[in-house]
Structures are given as structure tokens and as C-alpha cells.
What we know:
Blueprint lengths: L4 E10 L2 E11 L4 E5 L6 H9 L6 E10 L2 E2 L5 H7 L4 E4 L3 H4 L6 H10 L6 H14 L5 H6 L7 H13 L5 E5 L7 H18 L2 E5 L3 H7 L2 E6 L2 E7 H6 L4 H8 L16
Parallel strand pairs: 3-8, 3-9, 6-7, 7-8
Antiparallel strand pairs: 1-2, 1-4, 4-5, 9-10
Helix pairs in contact: 4-5, 7-8
Organism: Blautia aquisgranensis
Pfam family, one: ABC_tran
Subcellular location: Cell membrane
Amino acid sequence: xxxxxxxxxxxxxxxxxxxxxxxxxxxxxxxxxxxxxxxxxxxxxxxxxxxxxxxxxxxxxxxxxxxxxxxxxxxxxxxxxxxxxxxxxxxxxxxxxxxxxxxxxxxxxxxxxxxxxxxxxxxxxxxxxxxxxxxxxxxxxxxxxxxxxxxxxxxxxxxxxxxxxxxxxxxxxxxxxxxxxxxxxxxxxxxxxxxxxxxxxxxxxxxxxxxxxxxxxxxxxxxxxxxxxxxxxxxxxxxxxxxxxxxxxxxxxxxxxxxxxxxxxxxx
Length: 268
């Protein structure tokens, strides 16, 4: 079976300096990969490269990024734009900050949807409200009429997840999706993302400092340090019996809670 996403010996540089080096990973349909490591280890750089969001100073200097057999690295901006949204979507660390503060949530969602398909505002609203209900936003019509600053951090994060999932992408990239939330809302967001995986078979890459989130969500884990892979493999094996000294140090820094329980997400 061909992998949904494959990074093959990928090195990424900013201004000629390597930030991520020789990354190899595979992600199949419906799988969740957790990417962990200290700040500055290159976690977010990996998902930005998949999205083509490295900016003018960043570049994949070696290797290939394959999405369903197509090399993302060689795609033009126009080709890549056809994938972003319908096929590959992203949830940002602070979804509220990623939204325009002077336009309603409904207007922004409609504009985003129209970029990829012909859709009436009414149909867009109906689909959005249905998705919002799936992820715990019960008062969808009020949310659509609201401006981002009128919503709580947890509600804005759910709006971000809703926007990313409206077109049922095959791959969802999430950059610290729970870090700006309190523990109770973290738990809810994790449950909701797992529900979306179950319903739509969405594969995910979750970049996080939170080992509890990884333990609850991920099938596989990639451990990074200074842009290099320390360990990569099955979540339970790496969390319970890490082989690399750095991974052991990372695990030892986590308070000893029962990682099999969702409440352990509070350890991040």
C-alpha cells in the first residue's frame, strides 16, 4: 500500500543553514503521527514544508516530500494551492490569531470555501453548522455571526478545526493545537479530533510539547532534537521503553501520571 505521505531524506534550510536534517517518515491513511521535542527542534518546520509555507528564506534543500505519489517539493504554487484545503489542511497553534479580527467567522469561512468549490452561502452555513456540532460548538449560527474577539480561546480553536475539516481533507496538520487552551478544553479538543479521524479516516501530524496528547492520540511518534531524529516508531514502545538517551530524558521530565488516561494531557 502506498503511503499517504512520505518524507524521504528531507533536509530543510533557512538562509542556507540546516534546521531539519535527513528526515524520513511515512504516514498512512487514518494514522496519527506525534512530533515531539524541545522548542527549536524543527517540529513546526516539518509541517510547514509539507504545506509549502517555509517562506522566502526557507527551502527543502535535499530529499522529497511525497503526497499520494506526487512530489510536493516540485509543485508550483498554483498546483500546491489546489491541494491545500481539500486534501491537506492545517490547524494553527492560535486559530483566533489566524482569523481576521474585523470580519465575522461566517464571512471568512464562506470565502475560504469558495476558493475551492462553487457553493452558496446557505449551503456553506449548513455544512459549517453540521461540522461545528460534531466538534462541540452547539450554537453554530451565533458563532458564524460573531467576530473572533467575541469568542473564547477554546471556541476559536474549534472554529479553526472546523474550517480545516469542512472539505474532509485526507491529511490534517496541527501545530500545537491544544497549547493555548486550559486542561478541560484540551481534553475536549483531543476527543473531537479523534472523532474526526474515526468519521473521516483523516491522517494527522500533531506537533506538540504535550506528551499526554501524544499518548492519547498518536499511533507513531517522531522525536526531534536540534533538527535530527532521535527516535521514530510505535507510540507505546517509545513512550514506555525509549531507547535513545534524549528520549529517556524527555520522558523523565513528564510527571508520572497514567498515560493511558485522557487526563494525562495536562502534563504538557
